Amino acid sequence: MTIISPLKREKKGVSVKILITGGAGYIGSHLVKQLGEESDHEITVLDNLSTGFRDSVLYGEFIQADLSDFDKIDKIVKEGNFDAVIHFAASLVVPESVTDPLKYYLNNTANTANLIRSCIKHKVNRFIFSSTAAVYGEKKGEEIKVKENDYLSPLNPYGMSKLMSETILKDAAKAHKDFKFVILRYFNVAGAAIDGKIGQKTKDSTVLIKVCAETAAGKRDRMYIFGNDYPTPDGTCIRDYIHVEDLCYAHTKALEYLNEGGESDVFNCGYGRGYSVKEVVDTMKRVSGNDFEVRIKERRAGDPSAVIANANKIRNVLGWNPRYNDLDLICKTAYEWEMKNALAMSA
Ligand SMILES: NC(=O)c1ccc[n+]([C@@H]2O[C@H](COP(=O)([O-])OP(=O)(O)OC[C@H]3O[C@@H](n4cnc5c(N)ncnc54)[C@H](O)[C@@H]3O)[C@@H](O)[C@H]2O)c1
Fold first, then answer.
1. How far apart are CA 85 and CA 33, in angstroms?
2. Residues 75-85, buried b or exposed e (16+ Cβ, 10 A)?
């Protein structure tokens, strides 16, 4: 594995005023850090701290507010004089979305519709939306990688709640010509800041690399693989894992694109390479040096067997050039972050 020193890109482009919803969460806090270090943008973070953490927000102004408080949100958007909104705030536990779908349609779809309405009303005309590969569902046919214009058929309410928000954005942009959006469909986001300052703090996480890292760090006694009878080479699900810092950089490129007058569009954010659950577990065991216990359980509802991005469009149109496309590095940063947290808790 190559050790890469933290990348500091040259500050570039205009400085704009950005509202970042969900900026205290895992991905949002990494974007705030990246923008704080590598841009002159003025940042305001809005978060209800339901799954986020105040101390993960290293830059900008912080407002604690809930997106369901429509009057308050409208006032914040009106008075903030923002040029752009980057909308991360959402609920995102797939199994929970199956048992409690209304939570997902309210928080992810209704609250997003309201935020878009306020943006249009107050002429905040650049909107970057966190969508997900879960909008694709199960890929049919020979070509396993999904393209932005492929058939969309979410397998769970989480994916559907995001697809509905995408539709709202598209319809709103058709009706309001000045309003432009970029939808970024994230594949599986993982890892921690390369300099180790922040990482994923999500409680009771269900995402694979976080769970592997916690188990390797001794925070869990064992971990589970949900299903080993999928139609994949080793029987476990295949996903496209993207390092959180590369994903954040996609937002910087999307913002540049909108600032330069780019048209509304949708982009996959992945590396275009899939790894099975077993391969990820083996990688985590190797980089951590901990042969932790893994048990097999039955499949979970709503998990497609393989989801891999065709990531050509974001490279070609936005000029996105990822730096950390390396599963060892992703696992290592995730593991080291867990160890650092474990040490901090025992100190
Ligand atoms: N983590 C992934 O692998 C992944 C993959 C695809 C898409 N996404 C999307 O990326 C975005 C960020 O995900 P994350 O992993 O950082 O999750 P996260 O839970 O760490 O962050 C979400 C943030 O939004 C805040 N929030 C939630 N509901 C809110 C509300 N009603 N009002 C105000 N704040 C609210 C939470 O407190 C939290 O800080 C989400 O939209 C998610 O759907 C994530």
1. 16
2. ebbeebebbbb
Alpha-carbon torsion 170, 172, 174, 177, what sign? Answer: negative
Which amino acid residue places its CA nearest to atom 2 of ligand 1?
189
Distance 142 CA to ligand 1 centre (A): 33
In residues, how long is the chain?
347
The model's pLDDT over 32-54, given as tens digits with 9 standing for 90+, comes to 999 999 999 999 999 999 999 99
The CATH number of domain 17-190+241-270 is 3.40.50.720: yes
The answer to whether the beta carbons of residues 198 and 33 sit under 8 Å apart is yes
| Cβ atoms of residues 234 and 278 within 8 Å | yes
Ligand 1, pocket residues at CB < 6 Å: 21-22, 24-28, 47-52, 66-68, 88-90, 92, 107, 111, 130, 132, 186, 188-189, 202, 207
**Cα–Cα–Cα angle for 200, 21, 58, rounded to 5 degrees:** 55
Cα gap 188→207, rounded to integer Å = 8
Q: Is 295 helix (H, G, I), strand (E, B) or coil?
A: strand
pLDDT tens per residue, range 279-333: 999 999 999 999 999 999 999 877 888 999 999 999 999 999 999 999 999 999 9
